[in-house]
Write a structure and sequence with these properties.
Length: 227
């Protein structure tokens, strides 16, 4: 993204003004800072993060609750929704806009899990497990497996736990050695700010052939042995 913090704030303020909502530019700065994960504009400005604003972001997971809370503290609670919409519109108005999300799970499902499913076939661990079977790749079924670390708390990258399976198409002319590979690990997404992410990801998973198709051994005979 090319636009800087001040440009987005100015465009958002003009959008609010055009819709009949008058907010001082300094207060829009505060709301945008809250949307980017900071308690105040001063906190953003003093941040030790390399890119505390929007520059370099391919994805922005806007902190809507942060905006609502900051708007209430500034006396604009009644127009918090309008402020969120104006900020989203301003970000999307950039010549090279990032994709904006208001819900973390939506990003996880639409971006991170899609990345995992698209790249699982090329993973070394999956390829190694597949080599133990007499089957061919058929499809992937990977989804988020547990709650990730809070986005704002992670620093260089954000790790999203994922798990699921890679389905295999059995060659009927060869002995059956399994047709499902279980996978578990993380999608690692590099950050461009506190709630901003880059389109720079890697899949870090382990994989093993699902051996649940084996029949359990017969129960041992517990009758005493005659001596």
């Amino acid at each position: 993204m090319q636009s800087n913090f001040n440009t987005v704030a100015f465009v958002a303020r003009e959008s609010l003004k055009a819709s009949g909502t008058a907010i001082a530019l300094g207060h829009v700065h505060q709301l945008l800072a809250a949307g980017l994960g900071y308690a105040s504009l001063a906190a953003l400005q003093s941040s030790s993060e390399e890119n505390p604003g929007l520059e370099g972001a391919d994805y922005v997971i806007l902190d809507g609750e942060g905006i609502i809370g900051r708007a209430a503290s500034l006396g604009y609670g009644h127009v918090a929704t309008e402020a969120i919409n104006a900020i989203v519109t301003a970000i999307k108005g950039d010549p090279q806009p990032p994709e904006v999300f208001l819900d973390i799970q939506e990003f996880i499902d639409d971006v991170a899990c899609r990345y995992a499913n698209d790249n699982a076939f090329d993973d070394d661990a999956v390829a190694s497990a597949a080599a133990e079977t007499n089957a061919y790749f058929e499809g992937t079924y990977i989804e988020s497996s547990e709650e990730p670390e809070p986005l704002k708390d992670s620093r260089e990258f954000w790790e999203i736990p994922v798990g699921g399976s890679v389905g295999m198409d059995q060659d009927l002319d060869r002995p059956f050695c399994g047709d499902n590979i279980l996978v578990s690990g993380v999608v690692r997404v590099w950050k461009a700010g506190r709630v901003c992410l880059m389109n720079d990801m890697e899949l870090d998973i382990g994989a093993s052939v699902d051996d649940s198709y084996y029949e359990p051994d017969d129960e041992p005979d517990e009758r005493p042995v005659a001596v």
